[in-house]
Amino acid sequence: xxxxxxxxxxxxxxxxxxxxxxxxxxxxxxxxxxxxxxxxxxxxxxxxxxxxxxxxxxxxxxxxxxxxxxxxxxxxxxxxxxxxxxxxxxxxxxxxxxxxxxxxxxxxxxxxxxxxxxxxxxxxxxxxxxxxxxxxxxxxxxxxxxxxxxxxxxxxxxxxxxxxxxxxxxxxxxxxxxxxxxxxxxxxxxxxxxxxxxxxxxxxxxxxxxxxxxxxxxxxxxxxxxxxxxxxxxxxxxxxxxxxxxxxxxxxxxxxxxxxxxxxxxxxxxxxxxxxxxxxxxxxxxxxxxxxx
Amino acid sequence: xxxxxxxxxxxxxxxxxxxxxxxxxxxxxxxxxxxxxxxxxxxxxxxxxxxxxxxxxxxxxxxxxxxxxxxxxxxxxxxxxxxxxxxxxxxxxxxxxxxxxxxxxxxxxxxxxxxxxxxxxxxxxxxxxxxxxxxxxxxxxxxxxxxxxxxxxxxxxxxxxxxxxxxxxxxxxxxxxxxxxxxxxxxxxxxxxxxxxxxxxxxxxxxxxxxxxxxxxxxxxxxxxxxxxxxxxxxxxxxxxxxxxxxxxxxxxxxxxxxxxxxxxxxxxxxxxxxxxxxxxxxxxxxxxxxxxxxxxxxxxxxxxxxxxxxxxxxxxxxxxxxxxxxxxxxxxxxxxxxxxxxxxxxxxxxxxxx
Amino acid sequence: xxxxxxxxxxxxxxxxxxxxxxxxxxxxxxxxxxxxxxxxxxxxxxxxxxxxxxxxxxxxxxxxxxxxxxxxxxxxxxxxxxxxxxxxxxxxxxxxxxxxxxxxxxxxxxxxxxxxxxxxxxxxxxxxxxxxxxxxxxxxxxxxxxxxxxxxxxxxxxxxxxxxxxxxxxxxxxxxxxxxxxxxxxxxxxxxxxxxxxxxxxxxxxxxxxxxxxxxxxxxxxxxxxxxxxxxxxxxxxxxxxxxxxxxxxxxxxxxxxxxxxxxx
Lengths: 293, 355, 265
Description:
Chain A is mainly α and 293 residues long. Chain A has 13 helices and no strands.
């Protein structure tokens, strides 16, 4: 703090501090505190606010625990997000390894550039692309019918659609951290493992993956967080039977008209994500500094 | 005449670490003054206190007789040249030089004229529109000097500005700095850990060790009359022979050592009976037996250095000895592996008490 | 090369092709569907090639309105995020190790918060203050995490800044403000350009956060998502095509700016 004033003088130093305080206090901390406040109060008509019934309680959160449909959707969102993270990992790992260790520098540069293109296109459009591809009379069904793989069009919207769209949307959040961590592995370690007679499988399991675990953890955490908090993919690619927790939250706000319950649900989602993030990072001993690229 | 700089009992502590302890010295106006010491001895801290980047925790600093307490670096008649030079990489050379004038609200034509004048002074005419990144190390050096001189400081503070240069260039820049200082008459305070640099350029030198001022004097005084064992060892090469003081008389001390009784000048703070060392420079040792001070050493190797050669050997009790032999006398140099005698004159040795 | 290696190689080749088909086929189909006369965007069956959907898009006043909304939001997000993100980075570099890593964790926390939560938290705070959803809240909610990106980019550039330049400027008599304006800002300029660019892209792309705080305003992403549900025609694909083209060009410019910002200094 003194250092800031020494470097920039009292005028600019105070200005910088004020700007950061506005951000962290006014735009990050205060909204979250207010959300917690909302989550812990009952939803009352305006006349009763501040009255005897306006007391803090865990009712809104307990409501989620007792509402069997919502509870089921919550747990499904958790495990489906974990599944998305796992599938994304499986899809990305071989390519990340190839890019980092096997490909020639030129090829690797070209492929990396090609990969960043979809990354720059926004999530709504990426999901829209899948919406078109998976339509009942859409290209995928047409292709499969003409190949004779299926004899009836398949309704892809629903769990399958949501999974496919999400894995697609978050591929690069997984690929880049893993790529970065495998790239720092000395090639001679892999060759040494081979030379000592380890199979491909064992080399990966014992040498590459332990080295890349920080990158893998980072990728999984981000993918999980993004998937659990996603709204577009389930809204567009889902079916009535595949509702996502974020959709319930949205409904409390804009259809159910119970913001307190909505805030409570959002709080649960936030706590879930932060817990998963911090616990995973702690387990894999990844520093927060390394997470933000 | 430029301003003098006076330090009165100056001390500096960073939390619990002491960087500088009770330093008092006066730099005369128009003097080329060096502060010499190994890294971490507190010399840079002193320079930053004079510049105003640090405020001393004890004592006073006066520039031109005026107390600088509470004044920031922008309010002092000093300019600093940093070890990294700290040129602004995104400004052309002339804007770098005129930056201090820009800060003082000087109009652009006047700034440009002054920059041209200074470019001429440092022999960089026509380089005004270049970017610092396009210059060689020596050229950047001169831009940094011109930039500091542009604000017409009374005192120029230089923080090891030559350390990044190669040896040849460093030697040329020494001469240039010295000449520039004489021409401008500005007081220079020069920080360095390189004793040959300090001895070659300075009018006077202050030697520091572990935050304490050891000695202030002309280069000759430091070399011939070191006030402390530290100065004797740090400034130039020396041989140290341990012993006990037997008697003091007529400015000479007699020391009983493993090599016998040796005589040397009485150093600062010496008393009879004290354990002390006799310090004698390699070039004061002559091959052969003349006079009372005689040492016998076996020479291991002789390194030819050009103008002279250095003979490395051991005294009978195993203590290392270095003797310098002029190249013209190499023919009569001692043979390697055979005991040889070396002698020195009383007035070329100094006896200092052990710390 | 033995048989097992050959199989492994073949498997990897298949995987490699499949990966890129998976990555690009949906985008290619979406783009191609723009030129099909079919009312629902698809490429099967191909009913005829047309450019008419671009005309329909151009005539869609709702689209133009939402584009305008997005542009205004992006403008204000940049105006808010650049100064705050820069201040945050400067503050961070003025702190000692312990305080710095703590503040750093606080500052990146919005990146670890689900977008919907950021939107909801902003919404409930400002309803309490009597302000409803709309452009103002969209800007605040988006900026609260876009500032993180600005902070990271500026901080990365600051790491290569030689701090003695600050002292040199002050020592030559410059005021703190002149030091900042003449020495620091020019050095940070490439990072600020890159950050501004990233902020614009992030703002225009954003959906999850925006959805909750939009009130009665409809930025582009919300408009597209609504169209998908209420009346999807290839005009939306035409819009997607334009956005993809703009994004790719923007991304290339961003990369160029970012790479230029690396070596200098």
